[in-house]
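Regression check, 2-phosphoglycolic acid case 241:
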Amino acid sequence: MNDQVFRSTAQLVTQVVDEIVAVVQQKPDATLCIAAGDTPIPVMRELARRALAGEVDLSRVRFLGLDEWVGLTPQTKGTCIETLTTHLFAPAQISPRRIHFFRTDAEDLPEEIARINDFVALHGIDYILLGIGMNGHIGFNEPGVEVTAQAHQVALAETTKRVMRKYFDQDFPLESGITLGFAQILAAKQVVLMATGAQKAAIVRKTVRTAPTNQLPATLLKLAAHPCRFYVDQAAGQELE
Ligand code: PGA
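Current build output:
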């Protein structure tokens, strides 16, 4: 894992968007997976801006969802698909045919998981942008997750349930999520983990200092096939040497 502290959040965002644009220029039908937390929102917005300005053509890109809360419709404000739609897919006019997300309001969730597993097996992931949870989770890969997991349904950790409230304007009694698994994440051609803000400083330090363990899922990114890049801004990186 190569960690890099950026002087400003804006520089970090520019770096990530430059990398995504480079991937798409090399492979117009690349598969991109962008986490849907608050952290990557500036990346989504900047990517949409560049697409609208004609600086990058996203029309053939395949957008793969990282995770989703179970039991909500895709229109519910605060879901992963709604976040990506608001900040990237709608402004950049991405065709729904290019968007491959878990439908967690589907009746048959195992079928839905199998559909996404088939998609990843077929296309792989060219670039995955991840955020880190306050408990070190990646997507909904919570502490204790198997490193060999494919997409799966997960019981949400207590920390995640507490943090969850920031995404929704209603109090949903959510208990589980569906997420891509570490087997799929670790096989991606480029893996980037980003963290911004002082509230992430402690988990950033712990992740950098701890050997891979499923008790701190972010450390498993040290096992990625292509070394994971850990990009943090000064606030998130303040406890690093
Ligand atoms: P955040 O979420 O970007 O909203 O902090 C990160 C995560 O929980 O994965």
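Comparison notes: The chain has one domain: 2-233. Residues 35, 37-39, 131-133 surround 2-phosphoglycolic acid (CB under 6 Å). No diff flagged against the previous build.
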